[in-house]
Amino acid sequence: MENVSAANSYIPPRSNRILVMIGLILGLIFSELDETVVNTALPTIIRDLGGLPLYGWVAGVYMLSMSAFMPILGKLSDLFGRRKIYLLAMLLFISGSVICGLSHSMTLLLIGRGIQGMGAGGLMPLAMTISSDLFPIEQRAKFQGFMGPIMFIPMLLGPMMGGFFVDQMNWHWIFFINIPVGVLAAALLLIGLKETAQTKKVIIDWAGAFLLMASIVTLLITPVLVENQGFTWGSPVILSLIFLGIVLIGIFIWVESKVKEPIIPLHLFKNRNILVLSLIVFTVGVGLMGSFSSFPYYAQHVLGLTPTNAGYLSLPLMVGAVVSSIICGFLLTKVRYRELMAIGFILPVVGFYLFTHINISTTVVHIIIFFLITGLGLGVLFGGDNLIVQESVEEEHKGVALSTVPLFQSIGATVGVSVFGTLLSSSLTSQLNGIGHGLTNIGNIASGQIPANLSPDILILIKTAVISAFQHIYLYAFILSIVVFVLCWFLKKEVLLSEKKSIEE
Questions:
Q1: DSSP code per residue over 182-238
Q2: pLDDT tens string 318-339
Q3: Domain 265-505 has CATH 1.20.1250.20
Q4: CATH number of 1-204
């Protein structure tokens, strides 16, 4: 299908950068905040609407639609201009919020979450793309060093805001609050962002878009089914879905190699930086999100913390990432990013090594130090990956590139949470079975339902079993962190410079 449209647009100097950046930051914070707030309030929502078997799908549907639309909206922004597609993404997010807020059934809530996810799939990558169009490289590196840590704000505010809305108002306002903020963010962007369009014929790759969505949903629905519906990774349903997803990806690659304007240009992966960064963020998504997703279980049942305090125990991880991300923003235009990222990633290797040695005498202070060390290393990645992507591709492919690389992180995180959850469950069950002492209801204990009448000796044995299971999963995370450290050395030896000059191999 051909249309005449504004494509390959650029943002002239007369754009009001302050208004645009305020709008982008508001959109970023609230699209990410929505996820953490909903997770906090979800037990109350389930109690009101029923549908306990659909509990995990509230997050699963959001994740699936966000991942599927992320590269599509990025590509459309390259074709039709950043502003139009960003406003479309915000409209989808607000519309989904309205449906969620008005929901009187789980079915309607899930529909709203799916539409929200579509919009969220465009808000984050397009914010990075637009900000890259607004600033020269030196300013961009510093600014995006600040933007990366903004993503941690929702993690801090989410539990608090979720509790406030549930206790003081009602859970519907979790979604309604997105409406005025989203409208304000869209208005600021509409007023502040000026684009000069270059008119040309646009060919939309509808077949590629459909195949991409189908393959992503087919593959990513497998960990959701494993996590929420009780399937195993070896069950016929899961294996069939994985096989179908691989076939769809194969067809997608074939189609993309034939069309004139592919949704994801395959030549992007001939770019060493794009390929390596995709592998890095995927591995980090698997290892980091997978291994830390179950940490509140350890904090509650070994350290004896409340659920709220357990959630905030990972705060040092975010603090460390914020600090190093800001520092990275200042260094990227002065030192070669390959060495910067490789040296930075020594710290997560050290951090995960320390986590493999947790024991019954490990205190909260030790855990805080481990998180801080790990976060200081991860912040280098969060502060630099988007900027390296921006400077590694042509202007007309910037939007799709900045959407494709985060897609791999999203896929990695989704797979990691499920795989590491399965590893933890099987390891913990095995450890508990070895305790003996007439211990019954192993399944209930493994899920956190520890009887109150157990003797102190048995409780110590259970804690030791939990610790051993977590040592097991952190060993895998440690190995993955070494893999990322090695991958960093495959990046190009360049310093990002405004004149597009570089120090090449």
A1: HHHHHHHHHHH---EEEEEEEE--HHHHHHHHHHHHHHHHHHHHHHHS---TTSHHH
A2: 888 878 887 887 787 788 888 8
A3: yes
A4: 1.20.1250.20
